[in-house]
Amino acid sequence: MATPARGYAAYLFDLDGTLVDTAPDLMRALNHVLADAGLPLVDEAMTRHWVGHGVRAMLNAAFKHHGADVSSARVDALFDSCLAYYGEHIADHSVPYPAVVDTLDDLARRVPLAVVTNKPADLSERLLEALDLRRFFASVVGRGSTRNHKPHAEPALYACEQLGVKPHEALFVGDSATDVKCARAAGCTVVLYRFGYNHGQDPDTLDADAVVDSLAALL
Hints:
With 219 residues, the protein is an alpha/beta fold. It has helices spanning 23-36, 44-50, 55-66, 72-88, 100-108, 121-130, 154-163, 177-186, and strands at residues 10-13, 20-21, 95-96, 113-120, 139-143, 170-174, 189-193, 210-212. The relative contact order is 0.19.
């Protein structure tokens, strides 16, 4: 696929797996609750397949992997424990992907940028602040910012409204089918980062307008 051209009025970015490699800290939070539940720990490679649909989905995937029958009440308790642990260790090992900082710095000098993520809004803000990335974004739309979350169009539409642009003027940059569906529903052009959290799906098969090996390609 071709590299996207410059000239968009705004850029919307997914967070986990697109801007920041968060799997190391998510794995540690997941293993914290698996240990509490008396279940075997998992490695980072396995965790990467489960990241991107939210913490509860990650927990359920791990329980399914272990063949564990966990009650909904127990899942709720472990979910709260996982979020609390993760919030305390949100950037211990997480780092921006290569070229992310320079790309954001260049783009933010020219047009408004937003984060559009399914990560809870408060944790998104905390992660961006911890990694000194918050300064690049005029808006951060996370889970809880809108009634619906990705792949629904609402988060992208809300971000465009916040930035004062029309959806067709914005480029959505993500890493998964969830991002493609959200962008398409909103009317945004969409580009995928090849090395993010795509749940084992080949990014070239996900109907994005382009797939890039580095966010530097946006420049």
